[in-house]
Amino acid sequence: MTAKPPPKPPRARAPHGRKSWHPPSRAGGPRPPRRDLAARPDDAALLYGFHPVIEALGNPKRRIRRLLLTENALGRLKEERPDIAQEVESRAELVRPDEISRLVEPDAVHQGVYLEADPLEPLTLADLGPDALVLALDQITDPHNVGAITRTAAAFGVDALLVTARHSPNATGVLAKAASGGLEHVPQLVVRNLSDALEELGRRGFRRIGLDSEGDARLQDLGASRPTVIVLGAEGRGLRQRTRSVCDVVARLDMPGAIKSLNVSNAAAIALYALSAPVTEPAGSL
């Protein structure tokens, strides 16, 4: 008579109200569930990634709604920012990485940190001071580019990013990740019509510099006077005709190589550096 195998032990159940954890399925296995993008609030600024969220938590103008951290992210926070780790831990929900992955875009690198907050209040033209430095974006719609420009603007102490209500990406998600915390230091100034806003800035004494690879003036010859607004156009199309017409000067970046045009975020960085340095006289001049 063949002995019966011993009965299998009962499967352990998760505590009431919590889902049990299962390891990721291997190749060929069932697909993971679709990311739950619908669970994100429509009216919130959604930030993810270590640096964007940490900078937002340090911004007194941010009203925090919800903060999620993984154990690994909390460990990193304790190592790199012990000054705020205890306070942040007290406000955060500790979750698994996949719980954050369901709330962000596919392939987003969230680094185990996710934040929902109120959007920051935009500036108005009246908020700009007499020595302000502003970057104006003429229908630049790529959030990666706008985020990179915002990060550069924060590094150079730009006072505001002038954008239009339409044809501009929202200051959240991908843009915020690319900005790497820059959104907390460079407020946006949202207008309905860019050309009208540039005309108003001109009446207030702003020097309006359009940037174009075929501009008449060399950017490095213009000097670092304030107030100034630098106007950047979308890649490929460049500045629109009316935008160009309200600029006081359209300047170029002289490039020594075979390719004369740059990614708009790189051009913004070089332009800000050129305008922050003193004007140098050409070789051989008196």
Count of DSSP H/I helices: 9
Domain module count: 2
From N to C, what is the helix and strand string? EHEHHEHEEHEHEHEEEHEH
- Structural shape: elongated
Helix content: 25-40%
Task: Provide tags for this entry.
286 residues; alpha/beta; 60s Ribosomal Protein L30, Chain: A; Alpha/beta knot; 7-stranded parallel beta sheet; 4-stranded mixed beta sheet; 23S rRNA (Guanosine2251-2'-O)-methyltransferase; Alpha/beta_knot_MTases; transferase; SpoU_MeTrfase
What does this structure look like?
Residues 10-21 have a biased composition (Basic residues). One of its GO terms (molecular function) is RNA methyltransferase activity. With 286 residues, this protein is an alpha/beta fold. It has nine helices and eleven strands. It has helices at residues 50-57, 71-80, 82-91, 97-101, 143-155, 173-179, 194-203, 241-245, 264-276; strands at 45-48, 64-69, 93-94, 113-117, 133-138, 160-164, 188-191, 207-211, 217-218, 228-233, 249-252. The protein has a seven-stranded parallel β-sheet, sandwiched between helices. A four-stranded mixed β-sheet has the order 1-4-2-3. The radius of gyration is 25 Å and the shape is elongated.
